Amino acid sequence: MSAGQPTSGIEHDDLVELAPMLRRVIAARVREVDLVEDLVQETLARVMAARQRLEPRTLAPYAVVTARNLTRSLATNEQRGRRHAHRLIDLREPVLPDEEALRREERRAITTALGRLSQHDQEALVAHEVEGTDTATLAARRDSTPGAVAAQLSRARAKLRVEYLLELEQAEPPTTHCRPVLLALSAGDRRRQRDLDAGGHLLACAWCARLSEPLLDRRRTDSVAGQVRIPIGSDADVVTARKRGRELAAEAGFSPTELTIIATAISEIARNIVMFADHGEIVVSLVGESSREGVTVVARDSGPGIPNLERALEDGYSGYGGMGLGLPGSRRLMDEFEISSEVDKGTTVTMTKWRRDT
What we know:
By secondary structure, this protein is an alpha+beta fold. It contains 15 helices and five strands.
């Protein structure tokens, strides 16, 4: 199979069957939902790494033992922390009066900014962010699709950020061109930025240049039109990418098992960036094609590149000698997988998972 061909779901059907069982095993011992998913993904990564050395009938027992060992290690670390808690010094500073005033001001600005959105956007944001209604449910209520609802929520958040900053400023923009430029920056809408000559405007308008800084900083890890972009430079960023990618895929209505598979693939690709390229980025986007919906993950880095792609894509190959899945495992987990790499220039991996409607 070439690097650009779709991968078969048959190769990881056994993994799909293991995920619900592992989730039950771990959830019986761990209460935090996110932590359960992290442990499930770590277990699956170790199982996939060892599967070449295991007979099919031993795969499930090995997975259960691995899950229990990981859970036991977690519990041991927590108990050790509690035993030594009395030795720790609380270095937190008390909340100062002016800090409380700033918090009140921020809450007031958020309330005012929310009131400036359309009723449609207000209802969507409150339902999703406050009431916890998922995008699939919202889509069913509005005769829409999860992807379309996710895009609407992203645009609404972009507007909310701009209105929040304007309210904190307690001033109207100096020109009629300012608000559209700030909205395009907040939404990460590059086409709109180009149409508005946002770069030229920021050079000419010091007011917008100052307000654009928090918008651009916020955009580094926020979602826009069904997309999240996460800079990768450390192990902590790997965890962030896995979590944010899983959250976005959940908005598209993927099942818990599919979410685990997607998050695991993201984690492995992100870990490759940290190990070999020092830094890069991962972009996760909701996509639609004909009557199906999915999620696409693009991982880019400017590292040393891969001199032998065929070798790197061989089953069982791990460039850093660890227990990870690496490129071969990630390709098996996703439905479509493409990779391009040039020595001394970097590597780009593009992979897509389509939702299986039952």
